[in-house]
Amino acid sequence: MHNFQPNVHIMEQSFIAYIENSIKKNWDLDALTDYKGATLQYKDVARKIEKIHIIFEESGIKKGDKIAVCGRNSSHWGVTFLATLTYGAVVVPILHEFKADNVHNIVNHSEARLLFVGDQVWENLNESAMPLLEGIMLMTDYSILVSRSEKLSYAREHLNELFGKKFPKNFRTEHISYHQDHPEELAVLNYTSGTTSYSKGVMLPYRSLWSNIRFAFSVLPLKAGDKLVCMLPMAHMYGLAFEFLYEFSAGCHIYYLTRMPSPKIIFQAFAEVKPNLVVAVPLIIEKIIKKNVLPKLETPTMKLLLKVPIINDKIKATIREQVVSAFGGNFAQVVVGGAAFNQEVEQFLRMIDFPYTLGYGMTECGPIICYEDWARFKAGSCGKAALNMEVKVLSPDPENIPGEIICRGPNVMLGYYKNEEATREVLDDEGWLRTGDLALMDAEGNLTIKGRSKNMLLGPSGQNIYPEEIEDKLNNLPYVAESIIVQQNEKLVGLVYPDFEDAFAHGLNNDDIERVMEENRVALNAEIPAYCQIYKMKIYPEEFEKTPKKSIKRFLYQEAKG
């Protein structure tokens, strides 16, 4: 008999070991809570995982089979996700905001055998459009909505009996033994929402999950029993990695905002939960600051006081206190990612010494590429290459001339599922991934994003115009809620969705709004180079369509006639 020694390197790199160890170590601690609803402890999560494993086993699900999950964030979503991976199956998380035909396409393209849904999602889906599925189950209680397999129906009907047979005494930590993952093995198939129209299936191996969690342990100060409010969609890698998988591995208590997280609900949850860390997208931070903090500072007295050096510091401290308490008052830092920050808001946060930091990543890296701790963070940048990652900017002079960001390391995907052509476009033989983003990089390695390469416009004499930079300025002007800069017949046009609510509250009518937008155009042109001048403004009556990560779907507005 051979004396088999497991490969220590592989064992060390096990993502599932993080999950397994956390469940065993934190058995009696609270794990997942649906805000205003029920709480599961780590042992409850373990019990539910075993029950799902029994369903998989009895239904003939094999390791490597695909299991799709589509629903709003909830503790059941988290359990289903963990159960799939710990069984050795591949999880396909689908955003609940996707339109029904998009969900059908992803389920079919991924060849998922089972689909777990939330009740609201299920109302809009059509099972006959997903002929490959063997079953559809409701996530809340694992009841069967559609079964095309006798084995599946039998397993669900006899679940408690089967569980009792497997664990006749009672279920304990020593019963837990999960799938042993390997670094290159496929773990998650995540379809990007894409600011372009077509979703691609990003194949993330276990090394990507492991490396992202390893990174989080090295920079985010959380310990067992700490609390976090999860408000980003878990079907996105940013929310999944840094509001769920890392916290679960660290033994934290995660609260899910199961409804649409409006600033009001987020505010309320922060005040009650008092999270130890806040992870968010810029839009949430900007809304909270613009609606709750900045209006108090816009008074003439306040503006005057902020200019007086001695009072200044006192006032700054008071303002900082207000902002800190708006986020629950108990956190080490606020991590921001997913999109660029509005410069005015960022300057304001720097001024009051607010502990925030920006990261940069993409689904294809599961997600992290760059990060820097807030104490060393350079304003306007999105940090330096994260743990385990190499980052370069393809430019003859990266400090002054923007170039495309490329990166390499264990976070990088295996490729796009069943799409070799798209994979070859972004991944080279040496493992470098082309991000499609343009940036500058200073001597210390800090990255400053200039925009998406596909959004870049060319000025009249071949100058590079970054619409995002102009929009950032335009969004700070009176009554502008959001904007897009497009090019029409060589000229730039500003498409604006005004903040109607605010404008009407100040007694403006539609004609006044048009007048203000024209004034904004003149003011904006005074601030930007001649080749970026805005020729005219076009007002949009409703919000621009966005991806679930809240980036505007620009491709829909390129032909905007004005």
Describe this protein's structure.
This protein is an alpha/beta fold. It folds into three domains: about 10-255, Rossmann fold (3-Layer(aba) Sandwich), CATH 3.40.50; about 280-330 and about 335-450, ANL, N-terminal domain (Rossmann fold), CATH 3.40.50; about 455-555, GMP Synthetase, Chain A, domain 3, CATH 3.30.300. About 35% of the residues lie in helices and about 20% in strands. It has 20 helices and 27 strands. The strands form eight sheets. Strands 4-3-5-6-7 form a five-stranded mixed sheet, with helices on both faces. A four-stranded mixed sheet has the order 2-1-11-10, with helices on both faces. Strand 25 and strand 26 (about 490-500) form a beta hairpin. Helix 2 crosses helix 10, helix 3 crosses helix 4 and helix 9 packs across helix 10. The longest helix has 18 residues, at about 40-60. The radius of gyration is 25 Å and the shape is globular. About 45% of the residues are buried. Residues about 1-10 have low confidence and may be disordered.
